[in-house]
Design a protein that fits this description.
two-stranded antiparallel sheet, single chain, alpha/beta, 273 residues, 38% helix, TIM Barrel
């Protein structure tokens, strides 16, 4: 397989075939992330991608899933991405699901019909980094989207029948906006109603703008017990029709997995005495 730079995948894709179709991240401006700093985003040549699919066809017959790396594979133009999925279908017929990272920009670039077509050819799940539902914090960390845009793009993926796994970051708003971050993130998660939510604890990366803010005293990192309280507040503010809320990443001080199933607020009000 032809791998370049940092290869990052979700924990749930640990046993997947990692097919790198892009290098780096199309956004690469988030103040907390150091994964692709210094790496210019580019889509890999089709010839290399097809070679890697052929390699997987010969040597990866035990894996039932494929994950498209890197930071935002969904940004690949529709025709090229569809061609890649069709090649996976043709050459890896035992694969049951293809996954990829996505962001609000890449989801916006795809029409609903585009996403439905990708779903029909194997794209079964996308991983969306929400980080926070607080618009002030989203702007400060340079996420490149508002909470309303996140909601609309998340709903679009779900409308296409693609499963959605959303990542949120405990501690990303610092101490002063911790409660707001928890409440607003719960609001956005409830509006999108994803199948999976993964809560990670913020880890400061040297060389990133957020780390510099921390060193200068402009950002205060929450203590482990404060992050747990933030997680508690976030779960309390989240209502899903049915979904798994994970906080089992290596960055978390406590491992939690909880299925959240709530009736609607309207239904709750009806059942009150």
């Amino acid at each position: 397989m032809h791998y370049e730079g940092n290869i990052i995948r979700p924990p749930s894709e640990a046993n997947s075939i990692l097919l790198q179709i892009t290098v780096g991240c199309s956004r690469n401006k988030c103040t907390f992330c150091g994964a692709y700093k210094g790496e210019r985003f580019r889509i890999k040549p089709d010839s290399i991608i097809m070679e890697d699919i052929a390699f997987a066809a010969n040597f990866c017959k035990r894996q039932r899933r494929v994950f498209l790396c890197d930071g935002d594979a969904l940004i690949v133009p529709q025709r090229r991405l569809l061609n890649i999925l069709c090649e996976i279908e043709k050459n890896l017929p035992w694969v049951t699901r293809v996954g990829a990272y996505a962001n609000a920009k890449s989801l916006k670039m795809k029409t609903l019909d585009d996403l439905k077509t990708l779903k029909a050819h194997g794209l079964g799940i996308v991983y969306l980094g929400l980080e926070t539902g607080d618009d002030v914090t989203l702007n400060k960390i340079m996420k490149g989207a508002t909470s309303e845009q996140m909601i609309q793009m998340g709903k679009k993926a779900k409308a296409a029948g693609i499963k959605l796994s959303i990542t949120v970051l405990l501690g990303i708003a610092g101490k002063t906006r911790s409660k707001i971050h928890a409440r607003e993130t719960g609001r956005v998660l409830s509006a999108i109603d994803p199948e999976y939510i993964g809560a990670l604890s913020l880890m400061l990366i040297p060389g990133t703008p957020l780390y510099q803010d921390y060193m200068s005293g402009d950002f205060t990192l929450l203590k482990p017990d404060e992050m747990l309280q933030e997680l508690k507040n976030m779960i309390a503010a989240t209502e899903l029709s049915k979904g798994l809320f994970h906080a089992n990443h290596a960055s978390n001080s406590m491992q939690i997995t909880r299925q959240i199933t709530f009736p609607s607020r309207h239904a709750c009000q009806k059942t009150k005495p």
